[in-house]
Amino acid sequence: MKAQNFRKAGHFPSLLSAFLYFDVSFMIWVMCGALSLYITKDFGLSDTQKAAMVAIPVLGGSVFRIPMGILADRIGCKKAGLTGMSLTIIPLLWGWLGGTSLLQVHMIGFLLGFAGASFAVALSLASRWYPPQYQGLAMGIAGAGNSGTALATFFGPHIAQAYGWHSVFGLALIPLVIIMIVFAVLVKDAPNAPAPKSLKEYLSVFKHADTWWFSMFYAITFGGFVGFANYANIFFYDIYGDNVHPDGLSKIQVGYLVTITVIAGSFFRPIGGWIADRIGGIRLLLILFSVITVSAFAIASMPSSFIVMLIYTSVMMASLGMGNGSVFQIIPQRFSSEIGVVTGIVGAAGGLGGYLLPSYVLGPLKQATGSQETGFLVVGSIVLLTTLIFFAVTRSWKKSWARTQTGVNL
What's residue 395's pLDDT? Predict the structure, then answer.
């Protein structure tokens, strides 16, 4: 009965389209990470250069998310989504027909940020169609499009092995064009969308401390998810690959491990939103931050068994995925009329976190120490500190806007 009520509460074709748009876009966005073992082999990169290469698309997504969020508020999510997908065609064509130098790969990666910016549109589209009591589930379903990462990590290495990594970019054009057509046919902009505002009014949300707090917390959950998803091929191959062990894992087998960890994070995102609707996003996030901290320290122990490591990374990614759903169960309760631009800002912060994790933490520390251990000790310490900050900040939220009288669990 509740599922039927949920479907009637909003516009399901638009929600489905938001998921598909985010799914194909996320698949394209993380393509450099999925193909990292093949691309880096062509250019002979150091540990730091490898980490930077997979992180640049995340930086591009971070840069483009704020303007895409504003665009969604000004011209509607449907037109903004079609614009974003049209722009995504550019780096795919370039990667297919060009990409012959490291500079070109970096530029292609940055332009793949158009695909990463889909977040600001897809989540705004989902949020506007559903009432407060279903925000966690609706945003979780749309956000589960990050499962596109699993498509990239599973199919990307197979296609690259058989036909070369450039062909993966060309073939990605096919699902993108199909989803563009579906999006154009099925999506309707919500009738309660707020009227367009001036740029000054949109950017006024930066004056609110809560904008910065949400950005910080999402930089941990989403940044952790996308940062590790992009770096995971390098991480697993560096520890368990056949380049360091005679009977180690092949590049294809490493792709399978990464796919499993990514599926864990993607599958649990809508579950995180659903649970947050019932017990409150604040309460759930506090639990999840604690689990992420323990998981990061467990990964730092560097178990000799890749199966044990797979369990540790999957638990961490599942918690990060649920955390993403939890954050966006809370945000619409605080910024209902500015959801597009706030989604863009917070999403940009998440993307920035995903850029910093491999390029300024995991990659450089691996190159400096010769081990992945130090990087995850640092990650665990950062999340532990964030957990304490989150506990302190949310106590003030409960005294101001996050009150039980709203009828929404927070």
Answer: 87
Compute CA distances 77 → 164, 203, 303, 328, whole Å.
36, 19, 46, 18
Integer-rounded Cα radius of gyration of the chain: 20
Distance of CA 218 to the CA centre of its chain: 10
> What does pTM read for this prediction?
0.83
Secondary structure of residue 106 in the 3-state scheme: helix
Q: What is the pLDDT of residues 151-193, one digit of tens each?
A: 999 999 999 999 999 999 999 999 999 999 999 999 998 887 7
Distance CA 357, CA 58 (A): 10
Residue 150 has pLDDT above 60, yes or no: yes
CB-based contacts of 209: which residues, under 8 Å, 6+ apart?
A: none
**Residue 55 in tokens:** 């992180």
What's the rounded Cα separation, in Å, for the pair 215 and 212?
5
Of 293, 328, 327, 265, the residue nearest 127 (C-alpha): 328
List Cα–Cα distances, 346 to 139, 179, 301, 331, in angstroms. Answer: 14, 25, 32, 9
Looking at per-residue pLDDT, the higher value among 133 and 290 belongs to: 290
Torsion, Cα 125 126 127 130, to 10 degrees, reads: 120
Which phi and psi (to 5°) does residue 249 adopt?
A: -80, 140
Q: Are 218 and 281 in contact (CB under 8 A)?
A: no
